[in-house]
């Protein structure tokens, strides 16, 4: 038990790197798991914990993660020494969720290089101009929806409103589907996207964290 859950939490201390006092198993993500902070607030809190240092330690569950704070060091890792830092950490095994594991940020090695080469053509200057026109159309629909209300004061829930706006942009730029999630709030594309990204329930959170912490076990259990 000590070797599995407690020893990894001293990784940065043994390396002489400043770190917080992480919780067993959940590491520095306990504030997010127990709804004390959002994930962004948790990362920001950890980033600002040790002012003046070039880097500090952070734990994603029991996985040591280095927070780079020095711009020059960050430039060295992402440009000059990029060949040594090409792969992202594999979050979900392809056998557990092949759809999630197939996107660019989840791929590694040769598969990542092949996918990056395939997608590079989609970001030429002409393609980006076309994407801008599509995004501009979604923005015009967004503005027109509220102008048509003809009200001096409009009360809205910002998270839901902008998630619908982002949904429309993703639909038109990535899938070639034109939707207006403000005018048609129950359109299938938005509802499915909301369902996929909704981790508000405890069961979904535990399932997601189980995949991250125990990928081999969840891989076996998914076969039953």
Topology:
Layout: H1 2-6, H2 11-15, H3 30-33, H4 39-47, E1 55-60, E2 63-68, H5 71-80, H6 98-101, H7 109-120, H8 125-147, H9 158-174, H10 188-197, H11 202-213, H12 215-221
Antiparallel strand pairs: 1-2
State the gist of this model:
This protein is mainly alpha-helical and 224 residues long. Helices cover 53% and strands 5% of the residues.
Low-pLDDT residue spans: none
SSE string, helix = H, strand = E?
Answer: HHHHEEHHHHHHHH
Strands, count: 2
Q: What's the tally of helices?
A: 12
General description of the model:
- The protein has twelve helices and two strands.
- The longest helix has 23 residues, at 125-147.
- The protein has helices at residues 2-6, 11-15, 30-33, 39-47, 71-80, 98-101, 109-120, 125-147, 158-174, 188-197, 202-213, 215-221; strands at 55-60, 63-68.
- The mean pLDDT is 80.
- The radius of gyration is 21 Å and the shape is globular.
- Helix 8 packs antiparallel against helix 9.
- The chain is mainly α and 224 residues long.
- A two-stranded antiparallel ribbon has the order 1-2.
- It is a peripheral membrane protein.
- One of its GO terms (molecular function) is heme binding.
- Keywords: Endoplasmic reticulum, Heme, Iron, Membrane, Metal-binding, Microsome, Monooxygenase, Oxidoreductase.
- Belongs to the cytochrome P450 family.
- It comes from Dendroctonus ponderosae.
